[in-house]
Structures are given as C-alpha cells and as structure tokens.
Amino acid sequence: MNELTKPPIDVSVGPDFHADQRIHPRIPGSTLRKSIAETALNEPIQEPFTGHDIMVGGEAYETDLPEGVNPFSEDGHIDPKKMDELAAGNFTLISKGGESDLYDSGPDRKISVRKTDAGKVIGNGAFQYYWEIGPGKTGRLMESLGFEVNDSTENDFVTGVPTPETLVKVSAQHGVAIELIRGDEHYVDGPTYLGAFKAGKYPVSLGTESAYRHDTEDDHITAMVLGKEPLRDALAEAADKALGSGDRKRIDMAAQDIDTFTATLRSIVSPGILLGEAYGRQSGRRTLLQYGERLGISEDTVSTILSTAQATARELGIEVKELD
C-alpha cells in the first residue's frame, strides 16, 4: 500500500482511529498533519474576554454592553422599552454560573444591534422566540415595516426586529399610526386598547418581549397595513361605541373581538402564521363577517375592508387566497 492509498491518520483522536472515522479519504496523513499545523500557526490568538458584571433574570453574567445599559426585564428577556437605548454594535453576555435555562444555545448570549435606513434592528437571536412570517410571501411587507428578512429560502423568515421607535417611523409611511403602550404588564387593558383604535391608531405593547412580538408579527399589524383606511375607520367607530357604553364587560369583549377580527382578516387574505390554510373558500369570508357583526361593522363595510386588503396584498406581491 503506497502513501496515497493509506487511510489518513486522524490526529485529533490518536492511535485508536478506525477506517470509518477518516476525516478526508484523499489526503495523505502527513499532508493532513502539515495542514493542521499551518492552520493553527496562522490563526489569530483569541484575546480573553473582558467586561463587567451584569444581572439578567437573576443570573450573573459578564458583558461588554456599555456600563449602565441593561436591556433586559426581570424575567431575563429583552425589555422592548429599552430596545431604542441600545447603540449599534455586537455585544456578548457570558454566564458566570453555568448554562441559562432561558435559551438552548448555552451560557453565552449575543445581542446584535444594526443600523438601517429606517432606524435600528436587533438580531432575532437576542429574543426568546423568533418573529414569524406567514407562508404567503409577506416578507416584502415585513421589510417595509422595518424588519430584516431573509427571503433566500422557500419561506421568508425574520433576521432582525425593528426597535419600537423605528417601527413607529416606518409604519407611518403606510398610514398606520402606532401608539406605544409603555406599561410593564403583558396585556393592555380594554379601555387603553380601544382608546388607541378610537384615535385611529394601532396599539403596540412594550410591556414584555412576548407582547411586543404578538403586536408586531405578521398578523395584526400586517392586517392594519393591508386593510388601510376602511379598516382603521371601522375599528375606530367600533371602539368608540364600546367605550361610550361604559360597560367594562362590553369594552373588554370589543377589545378581544378587534384582536380576532384583524387576525382573521390577515389569515383569510393570505396564509397566516397561526392558521395557515385553515379557512376554506367559503368559511373565510363567513367568519370575517361574523366577527364584523359582533363589532357592529356592516356586511358592506366588511366586504370593502376585505377587497381593500386583497388589493393591497397583490400590490405587494403577496399570495392572495381565493374566496367565494
């Protein structure tokens, strides 16, 4: 057996190497060893990480975040109210007490803050869960709302989330005025929620990371963009009527119905993140009409909202579902 046909020696495992573990069957062992040695010599020496201590979710970390900057809430997740305080840059947190149970990626947490033409985005990996996009090719719409989107695969997916102030700026370009709700609670109470809609605005909660995601994913906010003025006007009137009743139960129910109406509109115009193709050709329109009736929105107005949303979706290159 000559040098070229010998099984290469895997220098990483020692003499107990077996033929079925070979690293590269076409490279002689001596050449492989030389290549590994040259690579090791040429690699830059990693400087030890130096930073300062920070407490995140009750755990001790070392970080290179600027002194005094802690963008996390008490539960250890990103606090939306602090997102705009972060300067552009890449930051690391290294656990000082073992792996965190908040994330599966190990003890290190990384935050990437990037400048964009619209403002700033924070890399999706900094959050507890990824922001999702429906399978109907709505990536272009999400980009226009300040998100970074990777559209190189079959389904678009978010890689960067806009900060609240960035979202306010870009949403206004679609005619959607956003009211940022800066409380610490996950849920926005009914009167506050309806008050925003009555004023012709779309409420976005900054109470928790998951609340911010709920209000800005490809669901309610994209429905507001697609439905344009007919949707905003109808919801403003419905909110006004419910608030005018003074009945807290009716107010809370109307808030829930608005949430459901916008999610339903988004899902029947194009496959959505939650329901996908759940609504058939007939059930989609019928369901939207039912929720509209609960809000006091006439059938004609619901039909106008739907046709407006479908037309907007086509303009944006979104796959529109056919309805009877």
Helix content: 25-40%
Radius of gyration: 26 Å
Q: Would you list the SSEs in sequence order as H and E?
A: HEEEEEHEEHEHEHHHHH
Mean pLDDT, as a whole number?
Answer: 82
What's the end-to-end separation, in Å? 74 Å
> What's the main sheet like?
7 strands, antiparallel
Overall form:
globular
- The residue ranges in which pLDDT falls below 50 over 5 or more consecutive positions are 1-37, 102-107
- Approximate strand percentage: 5-15%
Tell me the number of helical segments per DSSP (H or I, 4 or more residues long): 9
Main sheet strand line-up: 1-2-3-4-5-7-6
Number of strands: 9
Domain tally: 3
Name the structural class: alpha+beta
Tell me what the structure shows.
Helix content is 38%, strand content 15%. The protein is globular. The chain is α+β, with helices and mostly antiparallel strands. The longest helix has 26 residues, at 220-245. Mean pLDDT is 82; it is low at 1-37 and 102-107. The chain contains nine helices and nine strands. The protein folds into three domains: 1-43, no CATH class; 52-115, no CATH class; 162-315, no CATH class. The strands form two sheets. Strands 1-2-3-4-5-7-6 form a seven-stranded antiparallel β-sheet. It has helices at 29-42, 139-144, 164-172, 190-198, 209-216, 220-245, 248-269, 283-294, 299-315; strands spanning 52-56, 59-63, 89-95, 108-115, 120-123, 148-150, 157-162, 177-181, 201-205.
